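Researcher: Next entry in the queue.
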Amino acid sequence: MLLLRRLLSSRVWALMLKEIQQILKNKQIIFLLLFPPTVQLLVFGLALNPEVSKLSLGITDYSHSAASREFVSALTENNVFEIKHYIPQQTALGQQVRAGQLTAGLVIPSDFSRRLAADQQSQVQVLIDGVDANTAGIAQGYMNQLINRYNQQLSTARTILPVQVQVTFLYNPGLLSSWFFVPGVIGVVLTLTGSLVSSTTVIREKDVGTLEQLLMTPAAGWEILAAKIAPLFVLLIGDVLLASGIGRLVFHLPFRGNYGLFLLVSALYVLVCIGLGILLATLSSNQQQVILTSFFFNVPLIQLSGAIAPIESMPLFFRNLSLFDPLRHYVEIARSLILKGVGLEEILSHVVALALFAVLLLGISITRFRNQLN
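Model: Structure for this entry, 374 residues:
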């Protein structure tokens, strides 16, 4: 009680109340805290999906037989490929694929039915638009799987394979892509919102000229900084609760780990974001500069974090460089806690890395801010 009384009667508490009142009056900051995190989480979570469906398919069927129609039906029954056109000539089919009107084209030879009836191998030709390498690779994989399944259905000889494979998917048995992306997007939202809101709050003092008024007060430099950091910290923790609530209610994230531990680690990462934001504010002289400078820092942080693209797909140099990205460590922690339900010992190295980044960024930014005050 004595400590609480001292806090309520201290200059830090008075400065905190001033900061809270200014934040509540600033509609721009309230907007940044509520609207972008909600929209970004919903848009990224729903739009980022590596799976493809309804790929446009053109058919050139020279066989015109029941076997060829059955083959086409087998390729399109799971809605991965959707027939757009039946084209009589292979040349016209290739032109439509080249023009981007079709993702893939299938050419069935005239002897297709006869060779299958004679238990002979028949070759079909598949044309795939390779401009989008990712979609082309997925389309090729789907086509190979569908053709292999059709071959198994045609096979009348029942042979027992010496090795049988049973695959079990751990942690995400439904292979929901949103379960992979949403924990990473929570980190992205905290990075963008935390750095922009904290930098905007500090730079506003320079823009409106109230920084000089703060210097005229009897408050010490650390008291001014503490009064600025504490309200931002509480508001950004509210963003963590908002983002995790959306992840649970909208995307049905399991949150298998300790939610309290998730909040503690998120609080540590919020300090990292605040430190980054104050550092950006000390490097800029107005709000326009701080927003442009934030893109220089935030875009590489997001690209190297593994939140959007897997780190395993990056070149070795960038995989090693990502170790110096605090967002990568937070994304690893979030996915491990939410999907795997691990304990502190499994994520301890990432937690230590986040703590080091928090101390480093806050130390540098506070030092620069105090130097500007002096």
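Model: The CA atoms of residues 301 and 317 lie 15 Å apart.
Researcher: Noted, moving on.
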